[in-house]
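Worked example

This section walks through a single chain of length 209. The input is the sequence exactly as stored; nothing has been trimmed or padded.
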Amino acid sequence: MPLLKLFRTKHQAGVCLILLSTLGFGLMQIFVSKTRSQISVMEQTFFRNFVCLIVVACMAKQQGVPFWGERKYWPHLFSRSLFGFLGVVLLFYALRNATQADVTIVTKTDVFATTAVSVIFLKEKITKVQLAVMLTAFLGAIIAVNPTFDSTPLPLLAALGSALSSSVAYALLSYFAGRVNSLTIVLNFCLFSTLAGGVLMIPGFVVPS
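Given that input, the structure is written out below as tokens.
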């Protein structure tokens, strides 16, 4: 990818992209919370993925990337899309009904769930150093965010469900490495989420201001 040429190694590129992704998701959470009084969860999910669908489809077409991937990977792509969709919906619900700090900390448990799924199903290995780093980072996040956990139980359970669903989706991304193009993965996820969110938002659809 041309973007990788900006960095010395793929590892550096990956770290920078993860940081940008974290910033993007943080901003998304703020806007989800700010529109919660007017826009339903499914409508938020629809527009989030509809915009991404258009952008990624144009990128895939420009680069000649297959939209659907090989048939043998379709069940895995569907699973990734389904769990990714559930993760987003549960996260949006949690953000609407709990404090940002509480939701942020609960969803950060996805790093441990993803690691567990990767070790069990993908046979990846986790070192003691990596585990120590994850625990330290999680503790640092708790100190920085300072959650109060005074939110009601249901939204916090939704946040935990989002973390678990996302962990499966993230583990599948590791499985796709070298097998399915990243644009194909994102395109399938956005298409699934746009269609599912579009159908489910119809009963409560409102025109955004």
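What to look for: The two ends are 38 Å apart (CA to CA).
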